[in-house]
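We read letters as residues; the fold follows as C-alpha cells. Both lines appear below.
***
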Amino acid sequence: DLTKRTLNIFIKCACLVLLLFGIWMCLGGVFLLLKYRYTGVFFSSFYIDLPVLLAVISGVLLFIGGSLGCVLSRIDSPCLQALFVYFLIVVCCAMSTASALAYFHTGKLDVDLAPLKDVFQNYSGDSQDPDTRAVNALQSELKCCGVTNYTDWMDTPWFNHSGKYEVPPSCCNKTFHICNGTIYSPKLLYNEGCQSKFKDKLHLVLVVIMLASFGVILTLIFSAISVGHLMKHNPPQEYQILDQQ
C-alpha cells in the first residue's frame, strides 16, 4: 500500500545518508588517527583519541547498517528488519559515547595539552628524534612558531647550545624563501604560537564529532521508527500445522 511504499522510500533515503556518514567518518577518523602518530607526544594521555577511534568504529558499523538497510528496502524480511534495528541500536550507543567523550575533552584541552611545553624543551634538532619530528611537523602544518611565539625558543636548551641565534627552519614563513630562521628577522617567521592554534584545531575536531554524532543519532532514531512501522505491515507468519490428507 501507499504507507508501506512511503516507509520503504524513507528507509532507503535514510540508509543512503548513513552510508555517506559512514564513509565520511571512516575516512576522517583514519586521517586523524594517522595524524595522532606524531601529535600523540603533545597529550597527557592517549584517551583523547578515543572519540576519534569510536567515530571510526561507528563509521564502519554505519556502512554495514546502511548497506543492510538498502537491501531491506527491496526485500520484505522480518529477520533483516530486526537485524537492521539491532545495528542501529549498537551504532547509536557508539555515537552517543563518542559524542560524550568529545564533549568531556572540550572542557579539559589545557590539561590534555600540558606536555606541549616539555616537548618543545626536548627539541634536539635530530630528525630521528620523535619530539623533534613532532615539533617540526606541528609548526609546519599549523604555520606557527614556539609555544606562545618565536621568543619561546630562546629559553630552550637547543637554542642556547647551538649558539646560532636561530629558530628551527619549520618556523620560517614559506612565503619568504630567504628565511634562515634567524631571530633578527622576526618578520620572516610565523608570528603565532602553536599552543593556541593547536587547541583551536582540536576544539574544532571535537565539535565536528559532536555535531556529526547528533546528526547520525537523529537519522538512526527516525530510521528505527520507520522500520518499526514497516514491521507492523509485515508481521512474522506463525507456524501452522498442516492438515494431513
Q: What stands out?
A: DSSP finds eight helices and no strands in the chain. The helical segments are 2-39, 50-72, 78-106, 109-112, 116-121, 130-142, 157-162, 194-233. The radius of gyration is 26 Å.
